[in-house]
Amino acid sequence: MSDPFSDRLEATGIEYEIIPCDPDLADTAAFCEHYGYDLGDSANTIVVMGKAEPPVFAACVVLATTRLDVNKAVRKRLGTRKASFASAEQTREMTGMAIGGVTPIGLPEGLPLWVDARVMERERIILGGGSRDRKVHAPPAMLTALGADVVADLAKPVD
After folding, report:
1. Nearest 5 degrees, angle CA 141-CA 147-CA 153?
2. In what order do the strands lie in the sheet with 56-63?
3. What is the overall mean pLDDT for the chain?
4. pLDDT tens-digit profile of 87-142?
5. How far apart are CA 44 and CA 126, in angstroms?
6. Per-residue pLDDT reduced to its tens digit, 90-103
7. Average pLDDT of 13-29?
8. Which residues, at least 6 apart from 134, have a Cβ–Cβ distance to it below 8 Å?
9. How far is CA 129 from the centre of its chain?
10. Domain extents for the chain?
11. What is the pTM of this model?
12. Does 4-157 carry CATH code 3.90.1200.10?
């Protein structure tokens, strides 16, 4: 029996693996430590909001070893004077997903998807799986197959 999440994954034509995970270990650092994945291969999907009337939103994918540049790169792309991370509640309202499980697979139509260029340099990445009980392990080409725009310096390295 198919579901919308699996259907969207299959539609990319990219080979992938679903990794089951304990929901209590879904947060990036805990997941990587417990399941033995490199933090540098973990790509987080973060919903951001441009403060305008009405607010504008986008989803950004960045490596766990970087920090999303909300105040410059994101704000500029959103075309607003101020930008911030969407709250957990706003993220759930916008995507239907909880923090720790947010994935670029199955985002609502019209929500821009931007990926930091560093993500595309990895051989394979770990992404949220739409819920806290699974992750997706796939080549980063999965993101462009989903229609993501690759953005240079969307994130900054963490010291």
Report:
1. 70
2. 83-85, 43-50, 56-63, 113-116, 149-151
3. 94
4. 999 999 999 999 888 999 989 989 999 999 999 999 999 999 999 999 999 999 99
5. 8
6. 999 999 999 888 99
7. 95
8. 18, 19, 20, 21, 101
9. 10
10. 4-157
11. 0.95
12. no
* pLDDT > 90? residue 3: no
Percentage of residues of the chain with pLDDT beyond 70: 99
HEC-encoded secondary structure of the chain: CCCHHHHHHHHCCCCCEEEECCHHHCCHHHHHHHHCCCHHHEEEEEEEEECCCCCEEEEEEEECCEEECHHHHHHHHHCCCCEEECCHHHHHHHHCCCCCCCCCCCCCCCCCEEEEHHHHHCCCEEEECCCCCEEEEECCHHHHHCCCEEECCCEEECC
Amino acid at 66: T
The full 3-state SS of 106-136, as one line of letters, equals: CCCCCCCEEEEHHHHHCCCEEEECCCCCEEE
Q: Would you state the structure tokens that stand for residue 79, as one six-digit string?
A: 């075309």
